[in-house]
Amino acid sequence: MARIIERDPDTSGTEVDGEIFLIKAREEDIHHLDAIASGLWRFLEHPRDEDELEDVMRAAFPDIPQETIDADLTRTLETLIEAGYLRWQPFQGRHD
Amino acid sequence: MPWDHPARRTQNSACDASNLALPSIWTFEGLTEPFTVSGDAAPLVLRELATLLPGWRPAPGEHGAGNAVHITFNQTGNAIHLLDSAGQEIGGDFNPSPDPFSAAYRLTAALFEVMAFAQPNGLVLHAGAVMTQNQAIAFAAPSETGKSILGAACALAGKRLLGDDRIIVSSTGDTSTGNRHMAHPLGLAQKIRLPLPDAIVDEFAPLLSLRPGRRIADSLFLDWDEAVQMPPGKAVPLSALVLLHRDGTTPPRMERPSQPQAVRTLLQLSAAPGGPTRHLAAVRALVDHVPVTTLHYASCFEALDAIADLGHTPRRSPHPTPVRMAEGG
To answer: Which stretches of chain B sit within 8 Å of chain A by CB?
Structure first.
C-alpha cells in the first residue's frame, strides 16, 4: 500500500526564478531547494502517493537510469521530511 | 568575575573605568531616537564602542523615558537588553560577553538590526561599499575573505568608502528616481587583520602610518578619516552589488549569478530583523532591483579595478588589470 506524502501545513514556499525557498512558521531557517527539489515541491501542491512521485520523476528524466532517479527522490524526500517541510500520511485514497 | 577584575585584563583592552568621561547617552541620525546605555559596566563598553564606531558622535544627555532604545550592562550578567520607551523588550543579546570589547561588538550588531528594521526592506549586509560617481557599489563576502583589504585598497586609491565590513541597504519604493535601493554608511572603523600578506605590506604601509589606530588582538582598527570614510546618517543610491570570490583567478573574471543563486548567497551574507519571511522578501527585493555580479579575483588591486569598471570611473590603482566578463550560473 503506497504512502501519501504532503506538504507541512506550517511551511510556506517562495519561488525565485523557478527555484523554491521554504520557511517554516516559528523557525528562523530559510531552506533553498534546487531545481529538482523545487519541481517536487510544486508537484506536491496537493498530497500525492509515493508511486505517483516515482512515475513523474522517471517521466521527467527519461535518460537517467531508474535506479538513480529513485535514489535521488528518496534522498530528497528524506531530507525534506527530516527538516519538517514534508510529511507522510497513511494511505487514504487518491487525491486530485 | 567582573570585567575589570585584574585577572581578566588583556594587553590591548581598556578595562579601566576610573577616568572615563564618555557620556551614557548617544544620539545618531540613523536612529529615530537617541539610545541610552546604563549599568555599572557601561563606561567600559562605551570606551570600546568608541574604537568600533569612530564615525559616531556621542552627545551628553540625561536619561529619559522618551529614549527609544535603552541598553543595560552589568559586570556579572553582561547582557544587552534593548528596551523601547515603554520599557518593553525589543531584542538583544543575552549571552554573557567575555570582555567589554565583545559586548561592544555585539551591541553594534544589535543596534544595526534596530536601524535596519526601521527602513523599508532594511538589511544589514556583510559588505563594504565604495563611492563611484555619487553612487555606491557594494562588495559582499563572508568574514575574513578580503573585504577589509579591498576597502584599504580603495582608501589608498583615494576612493570614498561607506564601509569595509557592514552596511545597511534599504529600498525607497520610489521608482521615479530610478534608484530603488540605498546604501547606508554605519560609521564603523576600518579594520585590517594582521599580519598583512607579504605581497602588500609595502603598499599598505603609508595607510597604516597615516591612520595608526588601535590594535586589538590580530585586528587593527584604523583612525577615522573624514576624507575617506563617509559619516553615518546619509544614504547613497546603490547602483551595483559585487559578490567577492578571492580564489586566485587572474585576470579577474566577472559572471552574473542566477537569481536563486544570488538570493541564496545574500541570505547567508545578511541579517534582517523581523523574521525569515521579512528577510527573504528584503533580499528578493534587493536582487530584483540591483544588478548582482560575482567577481573572481586574486589581488585586491585587481578587484578594485574591476569594481571601478562597473562604475565607469577612471582606474586609480597602481596595478591596472584587464577583466574578463563571462556569462555563467
So the answer is: 258-260, 263-264, 267, 275-277, 279-280, 284, 287
- Does the distance separating the beta carbons of B260 and A16 come in below 8 Å? yes
Q: What is the DSSP string of B274-289?
A: T-HHHHHHHHHHHHHH
Q: Number of CB pairs < 8 Å for A and B? A: 33
A20-56: per-residue pLDDT in tens? 999 998 888 999 998 878 888 999 999 998 888 888 8
> The pTM is what?
0.82
Name which of B264, B275, B279 is nearest A32 (Cβ-Cβ).
B264
| Sheet architecture: strand order including A4-7 | A48-49, A4-7, A86-89
Q: Do B277 and A32 touch (CB under 8 A)?
A: no
What torsion do the CA atoms of B7, B12, B15, B17 make, to the nearest 10 degrees?
150
Q: What ipTM was assigned to the predicted interfaces of this complex?
A: 0.82
Is there a contact between B115 and B30 (Cβ–Cβ < 8 Å)?
A: yes
Closest-CA residue in chain B for A12? Answer: B277
Name the phi and psi angles at A40, rounded to 5: -60, -45
Which residue positions in chain B have pLDDT lower than 50? 1, 6-20, 65-67, 77, 313-329
The answer to whether the Cβ–Cβ distance between B267 and A30 falls below 8 Å is yes
Q: How far apart are the first and last CA of chain B?
A: 52
Domains of chain A: 4-89 (3.90.930.60)
Domain coordinates in residue numbering, chain B: 6-109, 123-327
Looking at domain B123-327, its CATH architecture is: Alpha-Beta Complex (3.90)
Q: Given the C-alpha cell 527573504, which residue does it identify?
A: B280
